[in-house]
Each structure stands twice: as C-alpha cells, then as structure tokens.
Amino acid sequence: MSGTLAVPVTEADHAKGSADAAVxxxxxxxxxxxxxxxxxxxxxxxxxxSGAKLRFxxxxxxxSQAHPYASMAAQVAEGAGTLGRFWExxxxxxxxxxxxxxxxxxxxxxGVRAVGLDPARMEQALEDTHIAERVRHDFMGGVxxxxxxxxSFYLNGQLYAGGFDTLGQAVAKxxxxxP
Amino acid sequence: xxxxxxxTVAPAFTLHSTPDQSLSxxxxxxxxxxxxxxxxxxSPVCGDQLALxxxxxxxxxxxxxxxxxxxxxxxxxxxxxxxDRHYHFPLLSDFEPKGEVARAYGAYHATEGVAxxxxxxxxxxxxxxxxxxxxxxxxxxxxxxxxxLDDIHxxxxxxxx
Lengths: 179, 161
Prior knowledge:
The complex is a heterodimer.
Chain A: E1 14-16, E2 23-29, H1 34-50, E3 54-60, H2 70-82, H3 86-95, H4 97-103, H5 105-114, H6 119-126, H7 129-144, E4 152-155, E5 158-159, H8 167-177
Parallel strand pairs in A: 2-3
Antiparallel strand pairs in A: 1-3, 2-4, 4-5
Helix pairs in contact in A: 1-8, 2-3, 2-6, 2-7, 4-5
Chain B: E1 14-18, E2 21-24, E3 32-37, H1 44-55, H2 57-62, E4 65-71, H3 75-85, E5 91-93, H4 100-104, E6 108-109, E7 114-115, E8 117-122, E9 128-134, H5 143-156
C-alpha cells in the first residue's frame, strides 16, 4: 500500500547497469510465476532499448506455497550468484520456465548444467544458509514495500501500478527525461 | 457504511472454520488477530492476497498474530479452496445469517452481497488497532498489517524473537 521501496538498492543487489544510471527498475519476481515468465521478455526488451541510463535489479519474491519449486529456483539462482553466474541462471530459469516447472528439481538441475555450473560446487554453494536468508530478506523487504503479488516493479523507488505491458512506456518516459 | 475504526472494540463472532468446527474471536484473546475480509473464494485477486498472507504465516506468528480469512462463502467452498491452495490458516464462513459479521465490522457490500476487501488488526484485549478498506479489485498487500503489528509491540514495549 505504501508503494515505496522500503529497502534501498545497494551493491549487494543483483543489478544490470551502472549504479549511476538515472533510472532504476527493481523487479520482485518468482521464477515459477507464469506472469513473471511473461514479463521476462518485456524486461529484456526494456533493457535493450534503454541503454546506459537504466539499471535493472532483480529481487526474489517466491510464493512457495503457490509454486512448489519457486524457493528452490530462487536459491539456485542465488547459489549461481555466489559462483558469479547469477544472471546466466536467472535468464535460463525464465527462458525455460515451462520445462522445469513440469519436471521440478530435475529440470532445475538440467539448468545448472546448461549454464555450465559444476553440480558439485553448486550443491556446496546451496548448503550455505546465507542463501535461504538472502531469499527471505528479499521477500520481507518486498512485503514491507507493499509488494502484493508477482511480478511487482518499482521505478526509481515507486511501485509501478500499471500492468507490465505498459512498463516499457513508463521506463522510456523516465529515460527520455533523464539528463 | 464505513468500516470500524481503530479504538473500537472488535465485535464478537463465532463462525464455522470447517464444516464441523467453529472458531470464536474470543478464542484468540491475549494474542493479536488479523481479520481479512475478502469478497469471494476462487476469485483471482483474493487468491493472490491470501497466497501472500499464507507465505507470511511465520512472520505473523513471530509478531504473535493469528490470521483469519473471512468471506460469505460456505465451509465446503472454503475447505476446497484451502486444500487447493495449501492455505495453513482458518477461513471463516460468514454464511448464515449471510454477511452478519461483515456488517458488524462495516465491511459488507450489500448490492454485491459479499464482504468488502477489508483488513482489521485486533490486539490481545480485543480492540481494533488498525483497519483498512481496499477497493474490491485491489490487493492491499501486507505492509499495513505488519506496520500495525509492529506498532502494537512498540507501544507494549515487548521484545520480539
């Protein structure tokens, strides 16, 4: 309801683009959520169009009771992050959402291999309790920011109330206004 | 009709939580209660709203609060919804007389014949400490609930786990 980002973007976030970018787009997303899957190519398109004026940040918001593999997928992406491969894993999970949503843990394991991560190192990474804590921290920060479902987008710290089909126009407007 | 405001004593009720069990507000005396009125089982926004709250049960529990969902749907519909969505909190049936509890809280939409999308945070003494009416189609999220619970604990000076 507040609609203001309660947890400021920091260096600890997964970000594409420069910290100096005029516009920051934050997504709270769930890897198994079909609407987030639909928003993925739109975000990719926005990133491709906006250039250096935009920074994109992804934070986890897994609704694990509704989506049984969402937490696992979030942790695998974070685990890949500790190995320096967050965005590759993130991209794979959204690009192959239909497939691994059907096959669950095995499907996600296929993704770990497809991204070129060593399954043993990945398993080791996932044993670190910080990963689950980080996902939970993202989630609670989202709740405190008024996230009410996924995906939720924040443009320069304010909840974007429109649908994600019009998000591109809203970003383009801010980017155009930026010096 | 306006929803009941903070400072008001929460109207008592006893409603079915399953086809053969009932719950009363007074059962939760000494704990905080989050009363979430919603228009209808199975409608998409309710699903998202309740799915979010379902995810937050550990946090509500940490804040010593019990979540109760409440709509005019019957207990069998509630049972099917809870099972389908893996909800781990009670859904109460304001079914007979229809909407009586929603009316008592000022949260009944008479022309639609359903409860409004209204939230109440009630303290351990049974007093409403926060309330919020959301437009029917707008999921209010949970930040207001958490802030209200934080405020209750801050005023009471209680340490939280």
